[in-house]
Amino acid sequence: MKYGMFWGCLIPARELSYEVSVQKVMPAFGVELVKMEDTNCCAPFGIQSLDYTSWLALAARNLCIGEEMGLDIMTLCNDCYESLLMVNTILKAHPEIKKEVNEILAEVGKEYKGKVDVKTMIDVLYDDIGIKKVKDVIKKPLTGLKVATQPGCHLTKPKRIHFGVREFDALDELVKATGAETVSYERREMCCGGPLRGINDELARDVARIKLINMKNVGAQCIVTVCPFCFVEFDLGQLEIRRHFKEEYNLPVLHFAELLRVAMGMKLDDWEIKSHRTPLEPILKGRVKEG
Amino acid sequence: MSLDSNFMHEVANTPRGRGILACIQCGRCSGSCPVARLVADHNPRRLMEMIILGSRDEIIRSQLPWYCLSCFTCLDRCPQGGDVAEVMFAIRNLAVKEKNMPDGFAAQAKNLVETGRVVPSITSIVSKRVEVGLPKEHSTATKDVQKILKKTGLSKIIASKGMVKE
Amino acid sequence: MEQPAVLVVGGGISGIQASLDLASRGFKVYIVEKSPSIGGRMAQLDKTFPTMDCSMCILAPKMIDCSHHPNVQLLTYSEVKEVKGSAGNFKVKVLRKPRYVDETKCTGCGICADNCPSEIPNEFDEGLGMRKAIYMPFPQAVPRAMTIDKDNCIECGLCEKVCEAKAVNLGQEPEEVELKVGAIIVAVGFDLFDPSQISPFGYGRHKDVITSMELERLLCASGPTGGHLIRPSDGKIPKTIAFIQCVGSRDKRLGNAYCSSICCKYSVKDAVLIKEHVPDSRVCIFYIDLRAFGRGFQEFVNRAKTEYGIRFIRSSPGEITYDPVNKDLSLWYEDTVTKKIENLKFDLVVLCPALVPRKDAKDLAKILRVEVDQYGFFRSPGSISNPVDTTVSGIFACGYCLGPKTGDIPDSITQGSATASRAAEVVVGEV
Predict the structure, then answer these.
(1) pLDDT band of C323, cuts 50, 70, 90
(2) Which residues pair with C357 in a beta bridge?
(3) What count of Cα atoms within 13 Å lies in the side-chain half-sphere of residue A188?
(4) Residue B154 touches partner A, C-beta closer than 8 Å
(5) Which residues make Cβ contacts (< 8 Å) with residue B103, sequence separation at least 6?
(6) Integer Cα distance of C407 and C91 in angstroms
(7) Cβ-Cβ contacts under 8 Å for B133 (sequence gap 6 or more)
(8) What is the pLDDT of residues B80-120, one digit of tens each?
(9) How are the residues of chain A apportioned to helix, strand and coil, as percentages rounded to the nearest 5?
(10) What pLDDT is recorded for position A159?
(11) Phi and psi of C23, rounded to 5°?
(12) Closest of A199, A14, B49 to residue C339, by C-alpha
């Protein structure tokens, strides 16, 4: 199975362990992540806020590249997913808007035709690969690890606009497939506060705190994310919360790809472990030898 | 403070603002909003109310629509299809057309126009990428981004905020 | 030639009224009812609004009339399987499911149930209490006979052993009966929308978030707690209770864009009942609009506010969360009048769900070849001119199966009488 791999700008700029982990786990399922040449910014939430047509055109340009490759696009970041998926849905449904966008894309030599779909890694694993195959590659089941999942807003909402959006439980099912257990905490679908980073850091921190309290209340030992914003909010966020509120949560944060990598028996390198601000060692101890 | 009785329809006619016509002011959105619990000024129901009443000037100039996380909780829960989160975007788009945008957003826009990236790259991390065997960087197609934003007129607005040369 | 009979499908209050009206005029009536007893939803209620009359006290005499009237034949635990023919001359096949008890011999003494080892959640109590595999749905059931639910029967034979009337017949077979009728009246009523579809309200996750029908059973003396209002989670008496209106109603996302028309009224009734059961409780009703139209309702709302101190908050709450540390339910809402976002703790939360067509109404509509509307309610060809007709001549409908423009009990009774009159026209023929 081949997908055009859309990395976005945040993961390659800040979360290298995520990028490495995805490339290490996906081949085990026979998935080839093909480099998408010359992609641009997906036009996330901050850019969408500025202008509607600019958003459509920027996102559509990436969709065109997928179409030129003849491959569906796989994203990791929830912001990229929301942007590309919504634009894909809007342009497919409204020919008059598609026409307007194509007039702009003509400036850069592209034409949107509506021939590909956009999926996240969770969609690919859950729908295209299937839970059974994920279970088959687990070599070191994470038995006893209590995980609070953070599917993130754009993996699971808005359902009203496009039904391709994933149900919350898919990420939980995938985490369970690694042998870990998921804990049910209040407001799992709530936002991490990430979009406010760089705009109002205190507010972003306070939103994340609400979630951390709920997760801690039910005995979570770690948090599993898929979105780089959620990761920063909880990982770096715990340091900020410690400084400001003097509260400790001790909830290390892992991306699902990293969790899967560990469960598949692979080592996380030293630099990768250190790149997690909230120490990862306590939950990795005894599960995999540090490299 | 004058009221603009046409404001509701102006918003309804924007691509993302159609939901305003469905609002029955039930308050489910504000009861769900994670930011509303922390910031008294940010209240999605109140924003819809202000649009319906026609407080155009106040909204276009205020911080109120800019705290939204676009988490879509309100949109998902609104029983009438009010699409509150979409209306938030519609209001922001209108505000930007009149050159009102908070600094944080302007900074992101500036990055985009100048470098093609919203998140700036850090030299030490670029070196790390090379060290661990990842490609130095992924594409940004900056020139194409600039062409697109010139065609839509957004780069002109960003430039006029005094933050970036066109 | 003998005058054709009338078939009434559904033994709730509107079907019962239609049957009695027809029977007292000399028409022969068959009532086909799916469950073991007639009575319907009204049997589940404690009191009716706004007069606070005991529901069963109004219903039971009518049920007894049905069982005693020489012109009424009850076919309970039965279903309509096929309808052929046309107005004036329908041929209906009815499947009588075996209750494994001879109705003519059973006295309803209940000794069999006392000895039955198999216990399951009682549907009549909305799953809050238990019943046995051999059971009577409620004490005032008509016909007064036990029924064995074969799916949950372990076939131990104890019931047969202890029955003094020798009424148990484990070898009973399903029976197909063919009825010749001139007109058909559909009165199959409603189901409750499943509020677990609105996940932020926590129904199904939190035991103390219940539906209004579950509340009725808790308040009712014939219910699982003998009429004592307790929290399902720990059996304690709740002191703070919230009602949430429009759970699934007026909701375009979920497909029930209509107003269910009776929930504002019954929630005020239930709130008053709660205050009577637990006088020091605090009750809040969270509403979007308070629809208390008709005779006596606005006055009832005013009394609820002034005499009972029930608090009415104009707000559709965002969510209900559970704090596992303090073990309480926390309701987040914005009071749209004070414009403040608040969080109140409650011991018990009652959801007023949308009233929707019964799950099997679609199947019945197919058998009758009548049309349903976009929500699945039986459609009348002209809701102004022929409100109780269906799209098939000779077939009429009454009660909530027609949709929410009806709703409270007097309306259902009125419609029952209206269909009786319409059916009589068909049977007698044009003059």
Answers:
(1) confident
(2) C190
(3) 24
(4) yes
(5) none
(6) 31
(7) none
(8) 989 999 999 999 999 999 888 888 888 888 888 888 888 88
(9) 55, 10, 35
(10) 75
(11) -60, -40
(12) B49
Size of interface A-C (CB pairs under 8 A): 12
Structure tokens at C352: 């007023």
* Main-chain phi, psi angles of A274, to 5 degrees: -70, -20
Give the model's pLDDT for residue A166. Answer: 57
- Closest-CA residue in chain B for A5? B138
Question: Rounded mean pLDDT of C302-317?
Answer: 96
Amino acid at B122: I
Distance of CA C131 to the CA centre of its chain: 18
Flag whether residue A151 sits within 8 Å of chain B, measured between CB atoms. no
Closest to C208 measured CA to CA, from C347, C32, C97, C382? C347
- pTM value? 0.91
Least CA distance to B33: which residue of chain A?
Answer: A190
Question: Residue B99 and residue C408: Cα distance in Å, rounded?
Answer: 56
What structural domains does chain C harbor? Answer: 5-97+174-189+358-428 (3.50.50.60), 111-162 (no CATH), 194-354 (3.50.50.60)
CA distance C333 to C121: 34
Task: Report the residue from A160, A187, A217 with minimal CB separation from C324.
Answer: A217
**pLDDT the model gives residue C75:** 97
Neighbour count for residue B6 (Cβ, 10 Å): 11
Q: What is the mean pLDDT of chain B?
A: 89
Q: How many residues belong to chain B?
A: 166
Chain A contact partners (≥3 CB pairs within 8 A): B, C
Can you tell me the ipTM of this complex?
0.92
A131-284 is classed in which CATH architecture?
3-Layer(aba) Sandwich (3.40)
- And the tokens for B11? 């918003």
User: For residue C229, what are its two tokens?
Assistant: 């209002």
Question: Under CATH, which number does the domain A2-121 receive?
Answer: 1.20.1050.140
Start-to-end CA distance of chain A, whole Å, equals 31
Ramachandran quadrant class, A130 (left: phi over 0; alpha: psi -120 to 50; beta: rest): left
Question: What pLDDT does C407 receive?
Answer: 63
Does the distance separating the beta carbons of A217 and C323 come in below 8 Å? yes
Residue A281 and residue C80: Cα distance in Å, rounded? 67
Which residue's structure tokens are 């199959």? C188
Q: For residue range C49-72, what is the model confidence (pLDDT) as tens digits?
A: 878 899 999 999 999 999 999 999
Check residue C419 and give left, alpha or beta (phi > 0: left; psi -120 to 50: alpha).
Answer: alpha
Task: List, in order of start, the domains of chain B with CATH numbers.
Answer: 7-97 (1.10.1060.10), 103-160 (no CATH)
CA C343/CA B64 separation, integer angstroms? 22
